[in-house]
Design brief:
Layout: E1 17-20, H1 27-34, E2 38-41, E3 44-47, H2 59-77, E4 82-93, E5 99-102, E6 109-113, E7 125-128, E8 152-155, E9 161-166, E10 170-173, E11 182-192, E12 194-195, E13 204-205
Antiparallel strand pairs: 1-9, 2-3, 3-4, 4-11, 5-10, 6-9, 6-11, 7-8, 7-10, 12-13
Protein name: Fe2OG dioxygenase domain-containing protein
Pfam family, one: 2OG-FeII_Oxy_5
């Protein structure tokens, strides 16, 4: 029996935003970031300082990140409000270490910055479609994966690249398969400005 013609159209999409800010990162900043005091964080390591963008030595990086957040709010989300970085920290994935699946609470947009040379392979960031228990697992067969049914999407990080994405998205980092350290910065951002409507008594100033 012949298949009837049909249309398939997207209802909603989830963005990830990528830009190169290599020009805002100096060798001295790379050395400073690599030398920060670290503590254990399950399988990888996290900086003891969880507000690194407040350091004056990292001002050019923080400014480039803020410019990217401004673009994300204006050009991707189309909103008049501004984002600001809440917490920011460095991560090191030693050989064999990845990052467990997680999302970021108390945040709207999160980001990753790959400020140093990446190992090869670089340890991809994997975004998962579902973030909660699934009673039925309906995965596509080989060769039938598309934007509507894929259960995950992979982002291959590059040195100097800044990624922004919705904080609610579940994601993890593949294990580091090399003998090199894998360095990155992560951060969260929240919104400031007025939300809602005065006359609808839903106004909120943040």
């Amino acid at each position: 029996m012949a298949t009837r013609a049909f249309d398939v159209k997207p209802l909603f999409a989830e963005p990830y935003f990528a830009t190169d800010i290599s020009d805002a990162i100096t060798p001295e900043q790379i050395d400073l970031l690599k030398g920060l005091e670290m503590v254990d964080n399950q399988t990888n390591r996290i900086s003891k300082d969880l507000y690194i963008f407040e350091r004056k030595e990292l001002r050019s990086i923080a400014k480039a990140v803020q410019n990217a957040l401004d673009s994300y709010a204006r050009d991707v989300m189309g909103i008049p409000q501004k984002f600001y970085v809440t917490q920011s920290w460095t991560l090191i994935n030693p050989p064999g270490a990845g990052m467990h699946g997680h999302s970021h609470s108390n945040s709207i947009v999160s980001g990753s910055l790959y400020y140093a040379e990446m190992p090869e392979p670089p340890g991809n960031m994997v975004f998962e479609r579902h973030s909660s228990y699934q009673q039925l697992e309906l995965g596509p067969t080989n060769g039938q994966v598309n934007v509507y049914n894929t259960l995950k999407n992979v982002v291959v990080p590059q040195q100097g690249q800044l990624l922004l994405f919705p904080s609610r998205l579940q994601h993890y980092v593949e294990p580091n398969q090399t003998q090199q350290q894998r360095y990155s910065i992560a951060f969260n951002a929240f919104i400031k400005g007025k939300l809602g409507s005065l006359r609808d008594v839903s106004e909120l100033t943040l």
